[in-house]
Model the fold of this input.
Amino acid sequence: MFGIGLLKGLGVTLKHTLETFTDDRQQVPDRYRNSIELGHGRRIINQPIDQEGLLTIQYPEEKRQLPERFRYIPMLIWDSEKNEDRCTACGICAKVCPPQCIWIVRDSDANGKPVTRPSEFYIDAAVCMSCSFCVEFCPFDAIKMNHDYELAVFDRYPQLVYDMEELTVPLEYYAALWPTQYATEQEQRRKDEEEKKAQEEAKARAAEAKAAKAVAVAAEPAAERKTSSAEELKRKAQERAAAKTAVVAGKVDESAAVVSAAVVSAAAATAPAVAPVAAGDADGDAKKTRMEELKRIAQERARQRKAEAGE
Ligand code: SF4
Ligand code: SF4
Done:
């Protein structure tokens, strides 16, 4: 019959509308229970991506929660537990930022001495490329990626240059956007603090033991300390004397060995010459005579030169 198909299609549409409406009403309490307040009546609805039924969201007042690892531009964390900025103005994020869109000014105290907190912190959202390098390199978990993607403005400057006030969010906001990562970081922080505490306790125990030892030494009778010191000095003097003797003995042995070797070698060198001395007395006399002859000739020549010079 003409129009049956049309009626079937309208029936299917009506069925889905009613189901959606029913699901939507069933989920209403849950959708607001864990929602995240953004201020000015805006909120992020905690609706898993795969959940059906919540098709009606009052955008832009309501937004769906995005996957945890979604990132847009960075945000600075205000530590609500310690009531201070986590940022220490170390400047690492500004150094690693590829397009160099972070500016930081370090704060100073009344004497002009720099302190570990920023007085100004700017990010140019028009340049930021959402790479998350700043987050990866921050050693204090002070900067994280925000899920806020609605940044449309009429003028790029200065509206897209976010200052510290615009960038700062409370820790709870970060915990709600990044629950898994937040839990992991908190666990790590807890472990680090425990370790630090254990180290401090060990240090305190060592200091106590040292102090107790010093007290015990101070309480020891002065006469005993004197005796023990005198004995100690005597023992050390004996050790030094023994060491000295050993060194001298070593040197003497060494010299004796050297002298013996010299004597032996001299004897070896002279031995063949000694025997012919007796036999060669005649050669010695001839040599002596020859020397005297040469001396006489030299004297004679000197006299002649003197006489010629006098003429
Ligand atoms: S956000 Fe992190 S890396 Fe950047 S200045 Fe602050 S503490 Fe340093
Ligand atoms: S996300 Fe990347 S580009 Fe943006 S501020 Fe951080 S480091 Fe720079």
About this structure: The pocket of iron/sulfur cluster (ligand 2) is lined by residues 74, 97-99, 101-102, 123, 128-134 (CB under 6 Å). The helical segments are 4-33, 92-96, 133-137, 164-167, 171-177, 179-219, 222-279, 281-310.
